[in-house]
Amino acid sequence: MVIVDFQRCGYCGGCVSLCPVGAIELVETRPVIDQTCMDCGLCLGACPLGALSLEGQEAERGRQGLALRRRYDVVVVGAGPAGSTAARRAAELGLSVLLLEKRQEIGSPVRCAEGVGHELLAPFIEPDERWISATVDKAQFTVMSGDKVETKRAEGGRGYVLERRVFDRVLAEKAVEAGAQLAVKTAARGLLIEDGVVRGVIVGGQSGVEVEASVVIGADGVESRVGMWAGLDTTLPQKDAMACAQFLLAGIDIDPTCCYYYISQELAPGGYAWVFPKGAGKANVGLGVQADMAARPALDYLTRFIEGQPHLAQGSPVTLVVGGVPVALPPARLVTDGCLLIGDAARQVDPLTGGGITNAMTAGQYAAEAAARAIEAGDTSAAKLAEYEERWAATLGRKMARNYRLKERFGPARRASRDFVRIFAVAAAGA
Ligand SMILES: Cc1cc2nc3c(=O)[nH]c(=O)nc-3n(C[C@H](O)[C@H](O)[C@H](O)COP(=O)(O)OP(=O)(O)OC[C@H]3O[C@@H](n4cnc5c(N)ncnc54)[C@H](O)[C@@H]3O)c2cc1C
Question: Helix or strand or coil: residue 14?
Answer without folding.
Answer: helix
